[in-house]
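Input record (one chain):
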Amino acid sequence: MTAALADLFVRRLEAQKTHVRRVVAAGVADAVADVCAARGVRRLGVPPGLPREWRPAGVDVVEDRDLTPADLDSLDGALTGCTSAIAETGSLVLAAGPADGRRALSLVPDLHVCVVREDQIEADLPEAMSIIAGLLREEVRPVVFISGPSATSDIELHRVEGVHGPRRLVALLVS
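The corresponding structure, as predicted from the sequence alone:
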């Protein structure tokens, strides 16, 4: 993966109103803590397989062990990893892996913080699909493509955010 590919990914994310922060691997938990503090997050949902070193101090970290819809709705945010990312579209790909969690965790809370390692970024959809196809041959999994915060203009062409997923999306790009 080249620096140009990572830069394209960041530009595409930012064009979609996603806040992007570049961090080093050892700084993920601190970056998540900063995001939580800046956005008033007190309860943060995480998948059980999320790396321990990504979990921030200063917030109540709640593992999603089959949280109910009401429990998910009571979270201030969610922190996940991803399976892959697509530079061309600025998309995050979550395929229910241990750090990705289940779909509901990334879609119900109002804030989604997603950790993306630079080596996970693929140039385009066909490259990302080869990774996803390999996973799906092993096990059927739901796959979610996230291209910016949830937004729709279905009603009288007025943009409304947060109807079909999180209103705010933060990507932490790990070099």
